[in-house]
Write a structure and sequence with these properties.
- The chain has one domain.
- About 0% of the residues lie in helices and about 35% in strands.
- It is built from no helices and three strands.
- The protein has a three-stranded antiparallel sheet, with no helix packed on it.
- Strand 2 and strand 3 form a beta hairpin.
- The protein is flat and about 40 Å long.
Length: about 50
């Protein structure tokens, strides 16, 4: 059995596009997809942007 962490301390702080949140990856795929968990604090922001 393998254990994976996707809690806030294992995440990455995101500041692009005037954002202010932490993103932890759950799954990476070979195709253009990514699944993650966002930690949004009080007054946090996920800035507007087109998918990249």
């Amino acid at each position: 059995m393998e254990f994976y962490k996707f809690n806030k301390p294992s995440g990455k702080k995101i500041n692009k596009f005037n954002s202010n949140f932490t993103m932890s990856r759950i799954l990476n795929t070979e195709n253009a997809a990514h699944i993650g968990c966002m930690y949004l604090e009080e007054n946090g922001v996920i800035g507007y942007h087109q998918a990249v």
